[in-house]
Design a protein that fits this description.
9 strands
Length: 276
């Protein structure tokens, strides 16, 4: 048995046991051979595999130098990360979709800031927001969307984001948001699992106001609390993960404009430990 590896593994577990916030970065999935061998059947399965694999890899190498444990854990595998160089920045488009598991404008700021730092860019070209679902039985409303949209608008004003978009809005709600918003939505994602053909009224409105309609196959809930804890448990066997709560997930892609190919893609994940 490799004693050195056993020690670093123990260090990782100690860090996880004492940490209060977990910031996980999967690295570039285009180059990550361990995950490329698997073909997940859905975005949820891909995210679960990514959390499990990244946590496992990080735990095997993480080290602590003293008895003071940090509150925030940066769970990433350095060699799996692809920062964007200043020379190539103008040649690529950096897009992101932010899944909020809880309401909170600070989560949007944190996610965008982490994405910019991780990819070494000053701003993201496009961010699509998927706010937390409304209370069971209630439909999505403008009031439900407004706090998140206001934070996105503020980030556009600070030049951290160039364009902002929405997900799964019907024509009525998209029109309400468009009329109210200071920064208009540049795109709206439509889940083709719920409608095989784009609704004509939505298509007409989007065309009139220059809103790009995109398709996606993300479930309404990308990852449940129970599934997140299971993924952590698989990545950190023997450790209790029941008190960890998923805050947000940001999925990004870096596309070479001239060739239309994906240079890199990955997930950023934030979770907090519930107070005892």
């Amino acid at each position: 048995m490799d004693l050195q590896n056993t020690n670093t593994n123990d260090d990782g577990k100690e860090l996880l046991n004492h940490g209060k916030t977990l910031r996980l970065h999967t690295g570039n999935l285009v180059n990550r051979s361990r995950l490329k061998k698997k073909c997940p059947g859905s975005p949820s399965e891909e995210l679960r595999d990514c959390i499990q694999a990244t946590l496992s890899d990080w735990l095997s190498t993480a080290k602590t130098t003293n008895t003071v444990f940090p509150d925030t854990l940066d769970c990433a595998v350095p060699e799996a990360t692809d920062a964007i160089t200043p020379e190539e920045r103008d040649e690529v488009k950096v897009s992101a979709k932010l899944f909020l598991c809880e309401s909170g404008q600070s989560a949007i700021r944190d996610a965008v800031e982490m994405a910019c730092q991780t990819l070494a860019v000053s701003k993201l070209d496009s961010v699509i927001i998927a706010p937390p679902g409304p209370v069971e039985g209630d439909g999505q409303t403008l009031a439900h969307l407004q706090p998140a949209w206001e934070e996105l608008e503020a980030l556009v004003g600070k030049q951290k984001i160039a364009a902002i978009g929405t997900s799964d809005l019907d024509k009525e709600l998209l029109e309400q948001l468009y009329n109210w918003a200071q920064v208009k939505p540049s795109s709206n994602q439509v889940n083709l699992a719920s409608c095989c053909v784009m609704p004509p009224d939505l298509t007409a409105f989007a065309k009139e106001f220059d809103i790009q309609l995109l398709t996606h196959n993300d479930p309404k809930e990308l990852m449940s609390a129970a599934t997140f804890q299971e993924a952590m448990q698989e990545g950190a066997p023997g450790l209790s993960t029941t008190d960890w709560r998923l805050e947000w997930v940001l999925r990004y892609s870096v596309i070479v404009k001239s060739r239309g190919i994906i240079k890199s893609k990955g997930y950023l994940v934030s979770a907090t430990r519930a107070s005892p």
